[in-house]
C-alpha cells in the first residue's frame, strides 16, 4: 500500500486517514484517467464527515498503474498483481478501511456538491437503514436510476431510467430492493456480517443486488436518497473489449444464480425459507504469533470451491485444531471474507487463520510446519518450515531454466504428498523417467463430504453429475454426457439428468455452459449452477446413478494430465448411496471397484448400457449402494485426519 502526497488544499479540511468516519473505496482496472477524475471530484465536493479514500488497483496493466501511482494526492493505493474481479477487489478494499462506514464507488463516477451528507443522514433518519444510495444521472443529466426493484424472475427495474432527473416523482426518498454498487454506503460491520460481495457472481454483475438482499435478511433496508446525486458514465470498464472478460453472456448466467438463491424471497418477500443461502459465521480473524507452534499452507492457485481447496483448507483446519497458529500464504491477496465463505460452505472452522502474501510471509520467521501446493514435479516455492511437505497436484515438468533451483528447493522438503493413487503412480513414473531424487510419496486424498444414506430408500430414474463447466484440458465432458443421455432417453422417457456444476469466471467456460444448454434444449436435463449443499443433499436422496465425465475418451497412458486426478465429487455421491459410473482411468478408476461399488465405462455405448441395466434392476441395487457408501468412508474427513496425523507423527 502506498499513500499519495501533495494533496490539493480542497481535500485537507475533511480528509483524515487516522480516524475517518467514512472509507471511500474506488476500484481501478486499466482506467487511471477515470479514477483520477473521480478522486478530484471527491476532494472538491466531500465535506461534513472525515473520510479516507482507498484506491484498489485490480491488476491493471503496468502502464496504467504507473499513470495512477504517479498521480499525487490524498489517497491510499492498494496494488493487486492480478484482477480479483469486482466483488473481491472491493472486499479487499473494505478490509483495509478504517472508517465506521464504507462507501463503494465505481471509478467512472463524478460526485456533485453535498453528495455525502444526505447519504449519511439516511442512517440517522431510518434506524433500519442498512444501505443508502444516491440518484444516478448520465453526463447529459438524464436520470440513470433512483434505486432498483426486482421481479420474481430476478429482472431489475431501474427506477426512472432515461427520465427527467428533476421530475418531482423521482426525487422522493423510498425503500428499494437494491442500489447500484457504483455508489453505495453502509456500515462496515453490516458489510462484514453479510460476508461482503459474493464470489458466486464473478467476474461481475448481480453482486450489488445480492449484497442488498443479504443485508435485508439481517433485518435492514436499502434506501434511495434523492438529495445525493452523482454522475455515472456507466460500464466504462466492463464495456471495454480490451479487458478480455467477454461479458456478453454473464447477465443471463448470473441472473440464474441469483434466482436460484433468492427465488423464494422474490416470490414471497419473506426471508423465512425464502433463500437457499445459509446463515454465515463471523469473519475469520487472524492472530499474531504468540509462542504457539506455527504452520503455513501455500497455494499458487486461485481459491474457489474446488477439490484443491478441500485439501488446502482442511489441512489448515487440522493444524489449527492441533494447536498451531496457521497462515494461508498466497501469491496475491484474497480477503478474509472470501475464505470465511468458502470455509463455511465446506463445513470447516478456520477462526484464527491469518492470510499473507508470499512477500509478507518471507519477511517473517520460518514456521514449524510448511505445506506447499504446486502443479509441477518440483515445488515452485522454497521450503519455509522446520518440516516441509510438498503437495503435488500433478507432476508437470517445470521450465528447463528453473530445474536446478527447483531441485535445490525440493531437497529441503521431507516428503511429497499427492491426492490419489493415480497421481502417485504418475509421480513415481516421472521421477524414474527424469532421474529425479527419490522422495517418499504419501497419498492424502482431499476429504469428501459425507451425505445421509439409508438402505431401502426409494430411488427415481435420475442421474446426477457434479463438477464444473470447464473448457480445455481436464474438461468434465458434460457435453458428451448430454449426448449419451439423449441416447438413453430415446428408450427411457422417465430418465432425467441433473447437472449440479459451477462455472468459472473465464469467458470460454461460460461459453461451454451455453453450448451444453443448447445441446440439452429438448431433453429433461436440469442445470443447477453453483448448487447449495442442501440442494445437493436433496437431489442425492432420490437419484439412482452418478455419472462422471472427466477422463471420458482420454488415453491415460499418453495424456495422464487430462484424466481426473482424484474425483472427490464421485466419493460425495457414493456416500449418499448413488451408484457411480466413471471413466476407466485416472483417480475415479482407483475409487470405484467395477461391479462391486459401481462401474467403469470405456465408451458412450458402455455408459448408456450400464445405466439401462441399473434402471432395469433398481429394486435389486441396495447391496451395491451399500458398498458404494462403505467405500466412500475410506475418503472421509476422519480418514483424512488419520493420514495427516500419521505423516506428522
From TrEMBL:
Q: Where is the Glycosyltransferase 2-like domain?
A: 23-142
Q: Which UniProt keywords apply?
A: Transferase
Annotated ranges, domain Glycosyl transferase family? 462-628
The terms under GO molecular function for this entry are: glycosyltransferase activity
Protein name per UniProt: Glycosyltransferase
Query: Which source organism?
Result: Candidatus Methylospira mobilis
